[in-house]
Structures are given as structure tokens and as C-alpha cells.
Amino acid sequence: EGNWETVEKALEIFEFKGTEIESDHECSKCGIGLEYNEIGINKKLGRNKSSWLCQDCLDINSEQFASITSRYKQTGCNLFI
Asked: For 53-74, what is the mean pLDDT?
């Protein structure tokens, strides 16, 4: 129940763009818009909001990105969808 409240709050901040959820947050290096799971990875890495990076600038390939997000989703972490 508590997780759903958190998810609902997150969905108020983020909007659906196709199958991904994007935000108004941008990569601090290249300026591209960050997706929900990219923000989750940055939070797990302990990065503060002003230094969030996109998947490319974090130098994480698609396979690594999918593996990381899948692992956290399986544990019930609500930073990932």
C-alpha cells in the first residue's frame, strides 16, 4: 500500500511518453531529458540532483541498464518501473 502512494506521487511529477516515463529533469552533462529509470540509477549511485547523468553519460550500455533496472524492480524498489 505504501509503495502505491509513492508511485502515485511519482506519476504526478512524471508524465507518460509512450512506454517510458520522462521528466523535466535533464542530464547535467549533455542536457538530454532523463527517463524515470535513469533518475533511479542516479539516486542509487548517490548522485545529487545537480549531477544526474543520462545512461550514455554514465557510460552504461543498454544491456547493463536493463540488468540494473530489472534487478532493482525485482526487489520491489519503487525508483524503477
From this structure: 94
